[in-house]
Amino acid sequence: MTFDPCPFLSFRFQRKGLAMLHVARGVWGSKVRVLPALLGPPRALSSLAAKMGEYRKMWNPKEPRNWAQQYREHFIPFSKQQLLRLLIQEFHSSPTEKAALEEFLAHVEFCTLFHYHEILDRLQALYDPINPDRETLDQPSLTDTQRLSNEQEVLEALKPLLIQANFSQLSEDTLAYALVVHHPQDGVQVTINLDQYVYMHFWALGQRVGQMPQKSSVGSKRGFFTRSPSAERRYFKRVVLAARTKGGHLVLKSFKDTPLEGLEQLLPELKVRTSTLQRALLNLILIVSGLVFFVNVGMVVVSDLKVGTSLLLLFFAVFMGLRASKMFGQRRSAQALELAHMLYYRSTSNNSELLTALTLRAQDEHAKEALLARSFLARLPGGASRPPQETSKWLQSEVESWLLTQSGCEVTFNGARALAHLQALTPSIGLYPPPGFPKLDQLTSITSEIPQATPRSDNP
What we know:
alpha+beta; 5-stranded antiparallel β-sheet; two-stranded antiparallel ribbon; 51% helix; disordered N terminus
């Protein structure tokens, strides 16, 4: 019995033993090489500073310039099982078609499993020498030049995985906007010194516009005096950060539910600062309370104790200075605690664990793209007689319209990549499950039959 994952496609690989994921293998190759073209030239932070200066001159910008052209959503906003149910409900309602589609998904998952496991092994081997959380014995220390070179290799090997996982890299103009503009609902504001950074990169997926989840927001539930309602924010379901400070190391982190104006809060080496409005309110409170204290106490001291006015003003200035320092210090401490609380709930993974999470996400997106391509190409007008380029454009248009109808999200679907995934699924790979592949009930019986260790006796 043979399994053809795409019976309506007339093309197949002719060369025997060709690896199933030829496109992905071409991207990663048999060895991870340093390809500067993948990441482009190193981000010039001086250029970022210049763009930040341009945004500071703007009056109340609401979003980055040409945002619709800068950011394109590629993430398919359904899980594999959700997508499978929707496709079966709409296109494959008969029992035969349902079983065929479920078998196809299982076949894709089986075929991609070992491929992405190999990719993860390569990434971890590259990252291990610079892993700050390594639990094994420490290796010889690297020089700063060697560490920086290793970090660039990791980033360049990581980018194809991020692309397959449907992350979009945020442009320099977007970073400039995020570092300058502060949303009025953010009670906690931070500032960074660009001179302390060697590079910083952000990738995002799942753009949303609406109210932020409560535990992921900072200061959005209360104002200075009263509780303020949550405002609609532009935020991302997932954000990946890769940054390095001078004298530091590569920081790889992933966060959830992050607003566009809050990207600055994710960076290392930041300082909490009090917003202009809060400083004005605190100063107003200090002035009013100081005047009341001076009128009620100071005049009595001058008249009854015969203390000189200059000496009284000196004591009053020292007292108000200490009071102001204490108030601002308490405010900054409260904001730092609130920021730490927010990051605790937003953080999803970091460093080596992030590599594993990204690999699993790329594998999921790979399977979802192949599933959509297989389902829609079954209804391709004219069958397989169309040229591949025309077929990919038709597939992209149909899938994007369907996803917009089902989810309400505008998603840019990569039709050419989905077709390549289907082409790579050749019958020579084998079927799922392969002959002799152990099933869950067999594994359970085998596990139950494992002999128990014999208790040791102290007597010979």
